[in-house]
Give the backbone structure.
Amino acid sequence: MCGIIGTTGAPDTCALLVAGLELLEYRGYDSAGVAICDRATGGLWRARAAEHAGSIGRLRTLLADAPRDPGASIGHTRWATHGRPTEENAHPHLDCTGRIALVHNGIIGNYRPLAAGLDARGHKRSSQTDTEVLVHLVEEEVASGADLAQAVRRCLAVVRGDFAIAVVRAEEPDVIVAARRTSPLIVGITASAGIVASDVAAALATTRELYALGEDEVATVRPGGLEVVDLTGRPVEPRRIEVSWSVQRAMKGGYPDFMSKEIHEQPQAVRDTLLGRLDGSGCTELDELEIGERELAGIERVQFLACGSSFHAALAARQAVEHWARVGADAEVASEFRYREPVLAHRTLAVAVSQSGETVDTLHAMREARRAGARVVAVTNVVDSVMAREADGVLYTRAGPEIGVASTKSHIAQLALLQALALHLGRVRGSLPAGELERASAAMSTLHLAVADAVGRGEEYCRVAERFAHVEDFYFLGRRAGLPVALEGALKLKELAYVRAEAYPAGEMKHGPISLIEPGVVVVVVATRTALWEKVMANVEEMRARGATVVAVADDGDEETAELVDAVLAVPHVEEVCSPVVNVVPLQFLAYTLARARGNDVDRPRNLAKVVTVE
Ligand code: AGP
């Protein structure tokens, strides 16, 4: 949940640390800090700031006093788990001598007994974090004669939990030691420098020669040198990462914020994601699945696992799979699936859906599905992410890096890719009616044009949204393919505008929640033309009869719907199975407008982090 950066041998250490931390801020921004080996004094210099979204700005000021002759250096941006987001809990943490510094992303499960042991042996801990035990354990190993890399290896042997760490020591001013288990970490080198980072974007300013550390691997990074070993000290061949995008793509590109940039990149994200996977003539190609067509044809159940917006994409996918492939499908929130002792049907295909490929709930649910006998596929936006590496097969959305904490383009790309998967399953299972494969794949290969049409109406959506800028109570309703859209619309509004927004199946309102409907409540309903349109509109009447103001996502030109509601967010018509990809767009603009009207930071909403690597 935190971001790590480390640099050694590069000419402008402070600028690299700050730029890296800024790129990693999406992983958390409760505090930020750096530790720098000072070649002139032979000591270690540390600065930390805990000013929420202003932490990196403050740190930049503090860096004016940084050592003039810096050696190996590490930095961290934090999303608090253990201990409040204060300066004393900010990373890097120091050992008792002040000569070893460590940053960590993850959670040390057994930190309490480890801390009790350290306290008993006389260590002075100065934070409430789980992380700090690590640096004192390393200190003990160093005191017994180990070098930094040996010390880290020995320390990690007694640690339970998830971690990516980077450690520096005053006595070894060129060296950064990095290690990981579950949480991600990238290392890289040039002829004269070395880099450690939580993601590729933060490392790219230094080099494109990047390697993904594997589970329980420990890297020693020096200027121009990299050694990777396992926890027993056996050398491991580091795995090179192919980087296909530039750091420029991760910048705002002229938009006021990442969210609007990413909303506008959605047509491209859909196009790129479907490229080469379907064509208008009924061909579907999902070779990267690594699961042969014969095996896929024999699948008896599909189990989607995901969290948040990815879960909403999975809900839409469940319907697409049942519609086209005629095989039973479920979508479950990963954090529940994991602890439910799930019993999976024979020949289950488990599909873990995750933008980051790191969400720890989804990762563990995926592992649980595998233990229960399923074949496992990861659908993720991050090449070489932990889920991508662990799954039997992987399908990448090609949305490019998503920096805004709220998922937009990655969610839409997931929807499109999962629909392609459903169609592919339908083809290999022979479950599609004659002509349907050609018709559906032709429709999907032009889906990006419909998304472009919807995104192009952004200003119109914002104007409608402004009328409701100060409303505090929203309901989002939908049925069938409209329900995941309603859920996603409500989630966006909650996370960005901090407004109460509840999503419900439209037909379920009369079983209880309708008692909350009164004048002043705004009901947003997905009312595009499907076989259920009349039923949806009957539900709309029930809301209006109780005084609600109704805003409908409706097909462009649908006058009949427009007459029955108070405001319309018009979208181009696409067939129902594909419709979430288009219908969610106005709801993104709705949330964006309300968030901005309230002065909220749309890229970094409070209390959230882009990548949730804690349970
Ligand atoms: C969506 O806007 C949220 N940021 C959040 O719900 C997110 O979708 C969830 O945390 C899952 O993340 P993942 O797709 O990276 O697994």
Residues 3-249 form a domain with the Glutamine Phosphoribosylpyrophosphate, subunit 1, domain 1 fold (CATH 3.60.20.10).
